[in-house]
Design brief:
The complex is a heterodimer of chains A (503) and B (151).
Chain A: H1 3-14, H2 17-34, H3 41-48, H4 57-82, H5 91-102, H6 106-139, H7 144-160, H8 166-180, E1 183-184, E2 191-192, H9 206-224, H10 243-264, H11 270-285, H12 298-313, H13 315-321, H14 327-338, H15 346-350, H16 352-383, H17 388-407, H18 410-428, H19 434-456, H20 463-466, H21 468-485, H22 487-497
Antiparallel strand pairs in A: 1-2
Helix pairs in contact in A: 1-16, 2-3, 2-4, 2-16, 3-4, 3-9, 4-5, 4-6, 4-14, 4-16, 5-6, 5-12, 6-10, 6-12, 6-13, 6-16, 7-8, 7-19, 7-21, 8-19, 9-17, 9-18, 10-11, 10-12, 11-12, 14-19
Chain B: H1 5-25, H2 40-62, H3 74-93, H4 96-108, H5 116-137
Helix pairs in contact in B: 1-2, 3-4, 4-5
The chains are: A mainly alpha (503), B mainly alpha (151).
């Protein structure tokens, strides 16, 4: 395997001044928006996505990946400083991180999160480099039946870890699939569900769906109950870890990295699972489990490493199979498609510069995150005090201009309103938006492979069960579904999710 | 009285969407499994969604998810939706600058806590900021002033 050559290609792509610049801008913007309370990584990326589309494909994807790391780190910062995690995986960090901040140790907590994330990011990037090509070449042998089953598995797996009822998550997936069918049929060019509107022939813009369901719906929910937020922590002093701290975080970082790298590959919410698993592991192996929940530094180091490792390795199913592991990756799929690249096993071979450049930039992005965040922490703390009355009009206006700039189509804007109100209603009724978005992104793929596989088998549905790989994938999907409805698993999930804040 | 109003309403919503898509797909050729027409897949999915919705409604009567749906700030819903829709309607005719300003005013009004002075300040600041970000920094090529305002 020509690993050195590939890495050299990746380095030469990722280290061009332009790509470095946009990686930096991405990390900076991601942190900037991610640190704003009430805006999680998915909403951050959905909002910033349109501004990346004018760039070259590689540069644009590198920038989006940078936004993702930045937003995730920003979410951990809000979790530690004001106990408001931007997304579910940062919820664990809030438990001990916020306790540390209240005890005047916000600096070491933030430094631990940054160092843990960097170590985990470095190792997980290596995992991607080592395993992605092998998986991609295996996936190249996949036929339509295998791809159909794989998409089914991805969709089902995504609900195993969604909050709330399995039935509702299933219904959300199907609804997302149905919305993805709007527009011209791939085989016959028949316009479907367009109500005669030409603007809908090319389908509903996925940016509108994402911005509506994650941006507008979230704004509406936050405006229900307008209580003023007070930032408890106004200054952060003493970022440096004591010798004792350094000794205490080594093993949690190592264990968190290993757990996160492995679990991140799973479709579904692997990164959420990773940070919770790491927290309970650290608590179990600790000599002083009573400290957990009262500012144990291990409770920050482990989950933060796990979380970030999983964020990197969740690129593996995306880059090798074209399967997004969570909503952020679904947004990445959309970004790939807008750049004219179909994510999947072919990317490594057809676009080696893009693939290896993106992978190397993951590490560069993680390095920038550390270099940027530790010195700028004072600025982030001040951003926490920006009142929501300024933030939410900005979300609405930027979402509107950004989406309109994609194709100057007013229909995309109306779609934001539609999905905003629908997403809000569903949120109020206990339905998570993430499965719908996954269904929406994967819908066309699912239909295409279903139809192609059945053309090959002349209408015989047993093709999905007689081909061994396809059968194995469907069995795995069935197991995932059973696990999701089993009462004992349900109870654990409820405990796991009880402290969470909205995405 | 159903045990979980949330589930009953959510299920009903899914049933309506499912029926809508299923009935709509009957307009297109269904075809057979070997040669699926454009209507086949949406018909199956529409049926599936209707069934899932029905199950959710049924469960809402026996158990289901507890907790109230909670209040809605109709003021927020009205102004936010108005901001998005008005932006869509006016951005071509009025141009980016006026459309952005109108959207900023409408969305700032969505909060009960923002005073009139603050609405004005936020709208002006936000309009300037968006022009700087999108037009100056990202060199977005959209007309700032549209045909409705040119004489």
């Amino acid at each position: 395997m020509d690993l050195i050559g590939n890495l050299a290609l990746g380095l030469s792509t990722a280290l061009t001044p332009e790509n470095l610049l946009f990686c930096f801008i991405g990390v900076l913007l991601g942190t900037l928006v991610g640190v704003l309370p009430g805006i999680g990584p998915t909403a951050t990326i959905a909002m910033l996505l349109p501004i990346t589309f004018t760039l070259q494909p590689v540069t644009s994807l590198i920038m989006i990946a940078g936004i993702y790391y930045g937003a995730q780190y920003g979410g951990s910062t809000t979790a530690i400083l004001i106990n408001l995690p931007g997304e579910s995986s940062a919820a664990v960090t809030a438990i001990d991180g916020h306790e540390m901040a209240r005890a005047g140790r916000a600096g070491p907590a933030l430094a631990t999160a940054a160092i843990g994330s960097f170590v985990a990011g470095t190792v997980a990037t290596l995992v991607v480099i080592l395993f992605a090509p092998a998986l991609a070449s295996a996936a190249l042998k996949f036929g339509s039946a295998e791809f159909f089953s794989l998409v089914v598995l991805g969709l089902i797996a995504s609900i195993t870890l969604a909050r709330g009822s399995t039935l509702k998550a299933l219904a959300m997936i199907v609804l997302g699939l149905l919305f993805s069918l709007v527009g011209q049929d791939l085989y016959t060019a028949t316009p479907r569900f367009t109500f005669g509107a030409r603007e809908l022939f090319s389908g509903i813009n996925f940016v509108s769906v994402a911005v509506g369901m994650f941006g507008v719906a979230e704004v509406l929910r936050n405006l229900e109950d307008e209580t003023t937020r007070t930032a408890l922590i106004r200054t952060v002093k003493g970022l440096w870890l004591t010798r004792d701290d350094r000794r205490r975080i080594v093993w949690p970082v190592v264990r968190g990295t290993a757990l996160g790298s492995a679990l991140g590959v799973l479709p579904g919410a692997g990164h959420v699972l990773a940070s919770f698993a790491s927290y309970s592991l650290e608590k179990r192996v600790s000599k002083t489990p009573k400290e957990f929940g009262h500012g144990a530094i291990e409770g920050v180091a482990g989950p933060e490493s796990a979380n970030n490792a999983a964020a990197q390795t969740s690129f593996i199913p995306l880059l090798t199979l074209g399967l997004p592991a969570h909503p952020v990756m679904a947004l990445m799929v959309g970004a790939f498609i807008i750049q004219g690249i179909i994510p999947g096993p072919n990317v490594i071979e057809k676009e080696p510069a893009l693939f290896w450049g993106l992978v190397v930039s993951m590490w560069v992005g993680n390095l920038m995150l550390v270099l940027l965040n530790l010195p700028l922490i004072g600025l982030w703390v001040r951003l926490l005090t920006v009142p929501y009355s300024i933030l939410f009009p900005a979300i609405i206006v930027f979402a509107g201009i950004g989406t309109y700039s994609l194709s100057s189509n007013a229909f995309d804007i109306y779609a934001i309103a539609f999905f905003g109100i629908l997403g809000y209603a569903l949120l109020k009724l206990g339905c998570e938006p993430a499965p719908l978005l996954l269904g929406f992104v994967l819908g066309p793929l699912l239909e295409q492979h279903l139809r192609r596989a059945l053309i090959i088998s002349q209408g015989d549905f047993s093709i999905f069960l007689t081909r061994p790989v396809s059968a194995a994938l469907l069995v795995a999907a069935a197991i995932a579904l059973v696990l999701a409805v089993l009462p004992s698993i349900r109870r654990t999930r409820e405990i796991v999710f009880q402290e969470e804040d909205p995405v | 009285m159903p045990r979980s109003l949330k589930d009953v309403v959510a299920g009903t919503l899914f049933v309506l969407f499912g029926l809508g898509f299923a009935l709509g797909s009957l307009e297109y050729e269904t075809g057979s499994a070997a040669r699926m027409g454009p209507g086949y897949f949406p018909l199956v999915l529409g049926g599936l969604l209707t069934a899932l919705g029905g199950l959710i409604v049924a469960r809402g009567f026996t158990g289901g998810e507890e907790g109230p749906i909670g209040g809605v700030s109709w003021r927020a819903v009205g102004f936010i939706l108005a901001a998005v829709l008005v932006f869509g309607v006016t951005v071509r005719g009025l141009g980016l600058l006026p459309a952005t300003f109108i959207a900023a005013v409408l969305s700032a009004l969505a909060s009960r806590r923002t005073s009139v002075v603050n609405v004005a300040l936020i709208s002006v600041g936000l309009t300037v900021a968006s022009m700087l970000i999108f037009v100056v920094a990202l060199s977005l090529r959209l007309p700032l002033v549209g045909p409705w305002l040119r004489f």
